[in-house]
Amino acid sequence: MLAAAELVEQLAAIVGAAHVVTDSDIMAPHLVEPRGLYRGSAVAVVRPGTTAEVAAILALCHRTRTPVVPQGGNTGLVGAQVPFEHGGEVVLSLRRLDRVREVDAISGVMTVEAGVTLARVQSVAEDVDRLFPLSLASEGSCTIGGNLATNAGGTAVLHYGNARDLVLGLEVVLADGRVLSGLNKLRKDNTGYDLKHLFMGQEGTLGIITAASLRLFPRPRSRETAFIGIAGPDQALALLALAQSAATVTTFELVPRIGIDLVLTHTTSRDPLAAPHAWYVLLEISSPERRDLIGTLEALLADALDRDLIEDAAIAASLDQRDDFWRIREDLSSVQGKEGGSIKHDVSVAVADIPSFMAEAEAAVLARMPDVRIVAFGHVGDGNLHYNLSQPKGADKAAFLGRWHEMNAIVHGVVARYNGSVAAEHGVGRLKRELLETVKDPVAHAVMRALKATLDPRGILNPGKVLG
Which domains, ranges and CATH numbers included, belong to the chain? Predict the structure, then answer.
């Protein structure tokens, strides 16, 4: 490896001195992840402005065996995007790669660079009367490169799929600086291996995504949203089946009453229904046609009420009320931090297993920690739950968080019994790296290691993340 001063000098020769940051105060936001679980150190933060500059940086780092940590909006929740504490790594910020290269509304494709924020992608699609359906609470600051590198999920997976389902092609810089030019607008291409799938969900360990061709969809012409009070997850599952038989369901989110209480305590939101309920569903149906969906939704809710699947419901009467409903869901994650420590679990099980999984997990968790507050919510329509544990009232935060691994083992043990996944949409990163070794099929894990050794033989790309 080069001495730090010499490395900084050579990096500056590639991107310009103004785009190689070594000042500790300016670097600081790049060195810690949002929850503060990991705080690292780096030689520099480098901010390339073109794919050619990314390629030159990686060629230099490959040659000098300098580890590189790619970073987009720094919104990830498993520590993949921040360096380790020991220093010696270079943080490669992709925020300056922020051009929209092409918008082809007829083909339904948009080509953007990795540093474009998700919110901007959505806005540009809307400008040409199209929809890019990926939607996350962090969409104002997360970047499309990070979304793809983590195979982001979000609230629309039920109908449109994960991030990998929304991509037609990628441009990727490999560890040695070669550029894999896989951008295209083709819906059908059977010329060998579909390499783009290697780089979605790999968290910057196999290559650096610098641009992507994204699928666009017809914009919904009709959309209706309801907040629904229900007795429990069993009723939610029955309601989901009924809704899918009556309409195109684009969102089906499960929310517990404790989540509503936390949002009401820490925000200006109002209770969505007249009386409290044990559980809630945020339901949205839509259509690319101009249709009377309000009638469809009213009939659906009436049918569900007759079947004792729901207890009450409110249909959004305006865009403002729809936004109010969504704000409750989007604030669920942030308000937990205001209640003290929160032990997070991003898991998935088969949709049909959700009620029994939640009952078994609750019994196991409360047996070990009777006063813990379970805040379980998420994308029940695709089986992805954020099974979070908030510290008991009055408990010591540090002591509670000190039991992170103990409580992880309990929840993940239940997940394993249901053949679920311990990393549904947030990824593996550093947080779940060791866990992955215990839950991944040994042959699959060996194949992953073989791919890493082939594409990154010197181990410079995000070392210590995903794979040990």
Answer: 100-218 (3.30.465.10), 222-333 (3.30.70.2190), 342-427 (3.30.70.2740)
